[in-house]
Amino acid sequence: MATAPRPRTTTRDPEELAHRLTAWLGTRLPGAKAVGVTVPASNGLSSETLLFDIEHPEPPLRSCALRLAADPSAYTVFPVYDMVRQYRTMEVVGRFSDLPVPKAQWLEEGPGPLGAPFFVMERVQGRVPPDVMPYTYEGNWLHAASDTEREHLEAATVGLLAHLHDQVPMREAAFLELPGEGDALRRHVTAQRAYYDWVVDGLARSPLIEQAFDRLEQLWPADPGPAVLNWGDARIGNVIYDGFDPVAVLDWEMAALAPREVDLGWTVYLHRFFQDLTVAFGQRGLPDFLRRDRVEARYARLTGHTPRDMDFFTLYAALRHAIVMLRIAHRQAFFGEVDLPADPDTLILHHGSLRAMVQGSYWD
């Protein structure tokens, strides 16, 4: 794992992007130049990010980050990249909550300037828990921190979810309501089924993913509770920290209206994904960090809402992550980086833990 190359995510030429970015910037801020344009090493596997500075006597922002919809020629992770929706979500969260959301300065809805829609926001300085190698591995700042420092970061991060869910009025987030019938949870799961069908269109279906969908129906909450604005990709890898305090909450492309536990399940499981992977490779990891019982208890103290049906919601998180991983594996095959195996379930890196969740033995 330590030497595995990072999967390819784009066919775009960084130098051409930089040239086109400078041309576009001049239309928004005459005389301005984009300088120091770079693609961060930690660029995600879905949308792309460019970092640059603005050279101008009076720029509205000096240091910028540009969020660009995924390259349509690069076997995208998601079928749709709605940058207007992301931009609007960040604006609403920034206006109605105390979450530190970067200021979004410009939105470009058309594909003309850079080949796809994008928006530009302020670049916030700080550090992010790494995904590669995962922060649960030895040799990074979070792993090297003290238990007290990690507990501080954990508390502050759970606080982000508590404040987001409690502070943003539903009338302001109504545009995030998913289509379909039924309550918010039913619509959310229906959307995931549609996403899975898109991922496997013309390809082998995953028996394990389909078993997980069936298991969800068996565990379906009697009362899912009211919907709140969910961050969607609620994990510490999408937060910039100053020391151990959050200073920027990033990546809102999966935001939606759903029960609180959808975010909580994702936060808990995405850490477990990295922890399980670390243990499988012979390291201890961080077994006492972001533990399910601690996250649930802390969230309950902050909000007065005791998380419910978390076996369902952690299974749902693992299932959603499996669909994304299946799509990423198919993209690797598209670029010739891997061969597709006979058993599609083996493309899901956490197929063992997902199967244990389906069987009801994972949390034993």
UniProtKB/TrEMBL annotation:
It holds the Pfam family APH. InterPro entries: ACAD10_11_N (IPR041726), AGP_Transferase (IPR051678), Aminoglycoside_PTrfase (IPR002575), Kinase-like_dom_sf (IPR011009). SUPFAM superfamilies: Protein kinase-like (PK-like). Coiled coil: none annotated. Residues 88-282 form the Aminoglycoside phosphotransferase domain. This is Phosphotransferase family protein. It comes from Streptomyces doebereineriae.
